[in-house]
Amino acid sequence: PGCTAAKMAAAVERSFIEICGFERETLQRFRDITVNPGVNALPGVRYADSAGGFYYEESGKLLSVTSNRFIHWSTSGDTVQLVEQSLDTNLLNNSLRLKIVNCTLLPGGVHIQETYNHVIILLVTNQTVHRLVLPHPSRMYRSELVTELQMQSIFTDVGKLNLRDPSTYFVIPAVPGQVPPSSASAAWVSGDGEAHFAVASVAGGMLIVRLPAHDVQGSVSVLELKQSSVVQRFLAGWMPTAMRGDQSPSDVPLSLAVRQLESDTFIFALCQDHKLRMWSYKDQMCLMVADMLEYMPVNRDVRSSLGQGHKLRLSFSSSTGLCLGVYLNIPKRGQFCVFQLVSTESNRFSLDHISSLFATQETLVDFSLTSTDVWALWLDDENQTVVKYINFEHNTAGQWNQVFVQPPPEEEVNIGEDQDPRVRTSGQIHEGSLCCEVS
What is the dihedral of CA 299, 301, 304, 308, to 10 degrees? Predict the structure, then answer.
């Protein structure tokens, strides 16, 4: 028994437990807004629901206006729900439900970025891109030390936005009768305030839509960037729109990620041909092509087939620089590969392979990469969600660690005829309070 207890203690010591913010309202009061971009619905287009989150840069700074403050979102069909939460104070008018008529939100098509004055939300659907510019909490409350019990959310005045203004959205150019070949997307705000959206192109490669800064008069531009098989042999460069050549659909991106470094923006694309491509947005050049199948044992059938379900995530830290996490969705042998991006003075780039990790038996839903770990969300055989993490640098045994997830609270508390309601509900309150106790 002592040995068993020691093993359990060791397992718990290496694991995490989810904590839940105290729910001040059992039922979210969403503000509903509908945007009609004037497009017709595309028949037969369906994408999986998705969810994600964003935390403020000073979320860990005690008593700042954004202390312990974050935004979580979910998409389903034509609707995205956004909720701003704080563990320190009660946020008023913090829930928004936005419907985009005749469009479908792409999985992961919600991108949130903060600037000094604003929180900018970028949305990508199968036909349109949208930009919401909201005030930063630090602009709403000028005091550096915040001790108020309740505050207004950044969504408080969202109803005053004119989301039909041409500067807030754009209809993606499309080929009649064809749907986007991939649901991959990425979006970012440049240093000068311009909003950029990258989506997969029907012809291969990607389209990049650029909206001018929200407070600057200007026109929208669309750039089609794709790699010519002829140019690739010699220059590994981009093929501009005016020089159309033979194009293989194998370079359609399955997953996109963006990182702004110094004066350039690098776009990373994990494509159907199992290759990772790195592009410079400033120079419109493909700087690197790496075959991911070189890092795992595969047969000829895998090499000759187009990939599906590959995923790409980035992580940046001052100690390790930029790291890339790649999930290769190979049947019966899914694998993670972690790389460090290496550059030279001559603007050449390569990948330093850090580790390869085999996936578990569950079905991967999504994953994120930190400077030390891979965190993954899975579905088991009973369709239950499972969260696990693994250190990708110091884990020779390949052992994934379980994260103990709190079950969602019951929407209704059933009280028996012989039970005291005060006792029954106090138990529920006590269970909820345990979620917030962190050692």
Answer: -100
DSSP symbols for 53-78: EEE-TTTTSTTSTTTTEEEEEEEETT
Measure CA of the first residue to CA of the last residue in the chain; give whole Å.
26
CA 211 distance to own-chain centroid: 21
- Specify the pTM: 0.83
- Residue whose C-alpha is closest to residue 272's, from 304, 295, 241, 300: 304
Rg (CA), the chain: 23
pLDDT at residue number 235: 35
Q: Residue 84 in contact with residue 116, Cβ under 8 Å?
A: no
Sheet containing strand 349-358, edge to edge, reads 311-317, 321-328, 335-343, 349-358
CA distance 184 to 109: 8
| Residue percentage of the chain with pLDDT more than 70 | 79
Q: What is the pLDDT of residue 205?
A: 85
Query: For 35, what's the count of Cα atoms within 13 Å in the CB-facing half-sphere?
Result: 31
Mind listing the pLDDT tens digit for each residue in 94-135?
A: 999 999 999 999 999 999 999 999 999 999 999 999 999 999
Nearest-angstrom CA–CA distance, 329 and 165: 41
